[in-house]
Amino acid sequence: MYSEATTESSETTEPVTAMTGQTDSTSQGQKADTAEKNVKVKAENVRLWYGQAQALHDLNLNIYEREVTALIGPSGCGKSSFLRCLNRMNDLIPNVRIEGQITLDGEDIYDPDVDVVQLRSNVGMVFQKPNPFPKSIYENVAYAPRLHGIANSRRELDELVEHSLKRAGLWREVSDRLQTPGTALSGGQQQRLCIARAIAVNPEVILMDEPASSLDPLATATIEELIDELKDRYTIAIVTHNLQQAARVAGYTAFFHMGEIVEFNDTDTLFTNPREQKTEDYITGRYG
């Protein structure tokens, strides 16, 4: 049976200081001022089973357009399972059953008429470990646009590859060696190549499953700077065990525990004035 705990990093987190107190927040810690924001992805009563084992319990979460939303919590709490629900990657795992509703711009992504290939183009994903194709840097970026008919001529592909690599902050480093295998790049460069590959098909949402957990501090800082730039164009949801990273990059944070969302709020409030004692215990390092 599939176990999410095997996919999540065992990275040690440093405590983030929190103050006690209550907020006047709404359900699951969500602040009232979010009512004015556009909901890009909406999860309602989402439940998930791996075989007989239930991994997610009645999750409700709004992911706002052109914001970064961090999913935090201890290993095995359902963060990555939930993230994979958002572009139906769990469809590829045997014996998975999902109930509830997830909408993208108000459209049910689990509707039988949904084109899953197109959905995964609209909702791109960057995994924990860089996974470039065994192709050149150029072909890593050009492959999906060519497959989807986004760019057909060589000139269109050249422009798209350059544009995507620039947006991923990699163009200056690889512009003179585009025919080099993507696997020959450093770990941080490979991850940025995977981001360039994801944005080459013009997605609306980017999912990131611990994108910096296997990188050194310098490469991690580069990825975080890139996320900050990308949020002006894309809606981003990121799973991270690094609480400092969530505090740095995310406008909103959801705290997961035992397959449930304990609290959701803007990041500053959740880290400095959490509503739930369990949230405070986690972010102050009492467990994790």
Architecture overview:
The protein has 288 residues and is an alpha/beta fold. The chain has a single domain, classed as Rossmann fold (3-Layer(aba) Sandwich), CATH 3.40.50.300. It contains 10 helices and 10 strands. It has helices at 79-85, 116-122, 137-147, 154-167, 171-174, 187-199, 217-230, 243-249, 267-272, 277-283, and strands at residues 39-50, 53-64, 68-72, 96-104, 107-108, 123-126, 205-209, 235-239, 252-257, 260-266. The strands form 2 sheets. Strands 6-7-8-3-9-10 form a 6-stranded mixed beta sheet, sandwiched between helices. Strands 2-1-4-5 form a 4-stranded antiparallel beta sheet, covered by helices on one side. α4 (154-167) crosses α6 (187-199). It is globular, with a radius of gyration of 19 Å. The two termini are 24 Å apart.
Name its key features.
288 residues; Rossmann fold; 4-stranded antiparallel sheet; 6-stranded mixed sheet; disordered N terminus; alpha/beta; globular; 10 helices
Strand order of the largest sheet: 6-7-8-3-9-10
CATH class: Alpha Beta
The largest sheet is: 6 strands, mixed
Domain count: the total is 1
Radius of gyration: 19 Å
Low-confidence stretches: 1-32
Q: What name goes with the CATH superfamily?
A: P-loop containing nucleotide triphosphate hydrolases
Number of strands: 10
- Strand-residue fraction? 15-25%
Per-chain topology:
Layout (H helix, E strand, L loop, with lengths): L38 E12 L2 E12 L3 E5 L6 H7 L10 E9 L2 E2 L7 H7 E4 L10 H11 L6 H14 L3 H4 L12 H13 L5 E5 L7 H14 L4 E5 L3 H7 L2 E6 L2 E7 H6 L4 H7 L5
Parallel strand pairs: 3-8, 3-9, 6-7, 7-8
Antiparallel strand pairs: 1-2, 1-4, 4-5, 9-10
Helix pairs in contact: 3-4, 3-6, 4-6, 6-7
